[in-house]
Sequence to fold (371 residues):
Amino acid sequence: MSEHNGQFDQKEEHDQEHHIVSPAIYGAILLALLIFTGLTVWMSFIDLGEWHIAAGLTLFWNPVVALAIACTKMTLVVLFFMHVKYTTKLTKLTVASGFFVFIVLIGMTMTDYFTRAWGRW
Amino acid sequence: MSDSTATANGAVAEAHHEHPSYQRHHFESVDQQFDATNFAMWLFLLTEIMFFGGLFTAYLIMRNWYYPAFVEASHQLNIGWGTANTGVLIVSSFTMAMGVWSAEMRKKGMLILFLSLTWILGMAFLGIKSIEYHEKWVKHHVPGLHWSDSSFLNPASDPEVFKEYHDKPLAPDMAEKTGMYFFLYFAMTGMHALHMIIGISLLTFMIFRARQGAYTTGHVTYVENFGLYWHFVDIVWIFLFPLLYLISRY
Fold:
């Protein structure tokens, strides 16, 4: 029975401690999110040009930068406001695999859509 | 399983279960209960991500198809209101996070203050959104309900509106395809606004419960998980804002 107790104590110490995030961190994240919002508006008024990868295949930098900034903001919110940085490994894995599946679903839909008429434009 | 094992486990359980009233009996500890509900909330949010994912995929395909019309239609949105609303929502996420902190620190007054601030900012967001929706209604830019191609083909045909906005006339095919943009605009921001309304309703309930001292006795699960929902709605807007408002502004 003492062995049993020992296990529980260990688990509570290392894995299940409830972490309280300080207001200073929340404030810093708020500031970063507001700066990134200003940045994405400012960048949208600048022509960032394009990259001609191949014939008929062009990458425009403006939407890429806008989405990169949005993803950065999302990561900050998920890690700190939503406490994923401080949560259990199970939740971390679940969140990560959820986003991964989301990317796969959108990615596969888009590859299908874009290659239906490949070379026929 | 013999009876003796059951008794032994029962004894262990009794020794350990000097637990607070809010801990359910099937959990070993409050922390385990917290982690389990937290995990469940994340599963729900992932289904929400997939749900909005369908709308985002439709948007990506239509934007690729009718890009020039999307640019023209996007420029009809007011970037000032859009940026202001992004700021309002981000600050409301901060006040919600501070609400969770207040509950964890068992500060009842602070919790009521931060929940109320989040409520006010949520209402401010919906207020600004309704100003924008009203403008689209006045300009006949609401597909299916209040739409007219001539408001794009010949904006001067409505002198009242033209006096205020001075929109350029669009070619007929372009005017027609802006309807796809506005359909997606209303579907996506409308679904987001519905989530805001649900969130604000839950906040109203929580402010009353917080006044009764419900979340400041160590049982922070409800506040924490509502916070996750509120931040998720914030994240959806973080993507809607650049995709709908910031197309080729240069």
